[in-house]
Amino acid sequence: VKMKLAVVLFVVVLCGIAYARPDEKYTTKYDNVDLDEIIKNDRLMRNYVDCLLGTKKCTKDGEELKKVLPEALKTDCVKCSEGQRNGAKKIIRHLIKNKRDWWNELEAKYDSDGTYRKQYDAELKRDGIVL
């Protein structure tokens, strides 16, 4: 199942995906992160957003994310675990409904030409995500 740019983006961010060899999945080492706690903490969530935007220094896992993100976007996150995909859906719903400005900033940087928005629009609507 294909995921929207944001789904890929936040799965990677919140799960702390690190580089993997081409034949491996991304690490699942951070898959047990409590996403509800991150959603409740605007400061923490904003730190991840700022890291990805390049406006603030990244944590170690954030820095790894910036390295893997282009590949994850291009490959439909084929190296992501199911848990990472599900976590991303949760985060993206929160951002679209509650932090739309942050979502817009990330989308402007990572999908400036609207490629991913167009590619995944119908699927996102089926999942109840309206852009």
From TrEMBL:
Pfam families: OS-D. Residues 1-20 form the signal peptide. Keywords: Signal. The keyword Cytoplasm does not apply. SUPFAM superfamilies: Chemosensory protein Csp2. InterPro entries: A10/PebIII, OS_D_A10/PebIII_sf. This is Chemosensory protein. It comes from Rhamnusium bicolor.
